Prior knowledge:
- The chain is of the alpha/beta class.
- It is built from 12 helices and 19 strands.
- It folds into 2 domains: 6-25 and 288-398, Beta Barrel (Lyase, Ornithine Decarboxylase, Chain A, domain 1), CATH 2.40.37; 27-274, Alanine racemase (TIM Barrel), CATH 3.20.20.
- The strands form 3 sheets. Strands 1, 12, 13, 14, 15, 16, 17, 18 and 19 form a 9-stranded mixed beta sheet that branches.
- Helix 8 packs across helix 10.
Amino acid sequence: xxxxxxxxARLDAATADLDPPLAVLDLDALDANAADLxxxxxxxxxRVASKSVRSRPVLRxxxxxxxxxxxxxxxxxxxxxxxGGDDPVSDDVVVGYPTADRTALxxxxxxxxxxxxxxxxxxxxxxxxxxxxxAAPGARPVVRICLDLDASLxxxxxxxxxxxxxxxxxxxxxxxxxxxxxxGRPGFRLVxxxxxEAQVAGxxxxxxxxxxxxxxxxxxxxxxxxxxxxxxxAAAAAVRAVADLEFVNGGGxxxxxxxxxxxxxxxLAAGSGLYSPTLFDGYRAFRGxxxxxxxxxxxxxxxxxxxxxxxxxxxxxxxxxxxxxxxPVHPAGLRMVGTEGAGEVQTPLRGAAADGLxxxxxxxxxxxxxxxVAEHVPVLHTLAGDRLTGAFPTYRGxxxxxx
Length: 403
């Protein structure tokens, strides 16, 4: 959306009968982003990363598309909810992170239908021990297991680490050893391998106003893609020599093309690109359409050139910095005050557009990360064309919170 006045007018008119704070989901933009992810995936199925969506109706809408299949959940409790009931969101849910939730493990191992639909992530025999401590192998259904292969780039004998600190399993030999540990224990079935290259998928390759950093990042990413392609293929082959794998998962919104080019990968993962938050503005390979925006009301005019909106402290996770703050986009020309930032109960904004705002007007923002905006609102009001068509409940709106 560009602010030529029409974008703001469209949003204000469509939501005129609603009181902010509120969030809008532009269905046209969502569908366009989903189509672009499918194009970039080059025919590989995309597993939807639910942490970047956090709304069951949105997940259902995306999974109805031919290019998407399965869910990558972020907690076991969430996975059980998505896979449970008579009308599950998906009957193929992989938990993207290891779990230590004993209550959820009891629910998984106490329901054969759930155990058949949900796959746990492990990177250590300790995770298997925890499952066994909750329910002994002979007293539970077989538990599906996926191995988490560390996809970070390591150099200088391991002294340089680029990427996130996830799994201790980095080499093909370590992956094969863990595979043997899984298959050698009763009550488990090894079905998958995952390697998420965060340093490629989740780091801007063209950060705005920082051309030298962009050049360095692109060099790092090219090196990482080459290194990981060989290591992931070797790890997949080593694990396949131990067990028949159903899938090898990789990638993220920022790395679909390069991950899809790896023949060892059978499926991709993506979610953030569906909403296209501001952290994904700084990529060279693609440009999404902002699909989710939220509005806050003007409640004060403390000085010329300044207004204050209610709330606003919708700060994204990750390293603290300006890029984690929400961005005011409509009307154009507003910025946060450096000494206050995004406040818990109020946020001052400065700029030429402030003098045209009155108490009760609204300011539209984009969030820095995708699904986290859903933690602040009970529904996403759905917009098609110039009118609201309804509302999709968020996890919060359904009374669910998964951390």
